[in-house]
Design brief:
The chain has 254 residues and is an alpha/beta fold. The protein has helices spanning 16-28, 39-48, 65-75, 93-97, 110-125, 160-171, 179-187, 194-209; strands at 8-12, 32-36, 53-57, 80-85, 102-106, 134-137, 140-143, 148-151, 154-155, 176-178, 219-222, 226-229, 240-241. A hairpin with a 2-residue loop joins strand 8 and strand 9. Helix 2 runs parallel beside helix 3, helix 6 packs across helix 8 and helix 7 (179-187) crosses helix 8.
Length: 254
Amino acid sequence: MSTTDTRRILLVEDEKTIRDAVAAYLEREGYWVTPAADGRAALDAFATHPFDLVILDLMLPKVSGEVVCREIRNHSDIPLIMLTAKGELDDRIVGLEMGADDYLIKPFSPRELIARVRALLRRVHTGDEPQRDRLIYGDLVLDITAHQALLADKDLDLTASEFKLLTTLARYPGRVYSRMELVEKVLGYDFEGYERTVDSHVKNLRAKLGDDPRNPRFIYTVHGVGYRFEPQDAPEEAAEVAQPSKSKKSRGAK
Ligand code: CA
């Protein structure tokens, strides 16, 4: 593995022995590790450095892993693995509901963690799910990397949640998403009045897109279920700039 595609990992864990051991394993695998011993340090590091993946302990001093996760999810869809101790959560699913992509219950083997890290990075960078740089539907352009949505060359100025909502829907046109699914995918954590929350994000999104719910061009309400994206006047060969899925070989490496 070449140093040009070294992945940077933010490792948040307050127990020094675990932190040091995990960091050592990750570094041996060629990852670049930034350790953080509490939630505040994690958020500071996240705000000031680029990362490719976050490993986040749930129970942390100063700022809890739950809050850190929600905070990160407000700004980013970076791959995130949650670490929980047995019994900390009555249901491990809770970790995923907070917006984590994966979770590990302590004690875990370092090998298991490495496997999860690899799998998650592979999924994001080469995509079992198609991870496209840009989604283009007629005059609607969603630039995933730049976090920008343009309609007829005009920046829609979407909030992070609106952007995530729109790209989630637009990645699979025609697929119906329930409100619950959208809560999980888009909002990650916020369960209070979740239906209303999704509805109000959709409402704002429609306003910015100029999309009339009674005669939609993009977002359809599926009554009793949720929403789907279905672009109406997209050109026949709606261009999709996809990352070639077979780009596993040396990307920039020699
Ligand atoms: Ca802890």
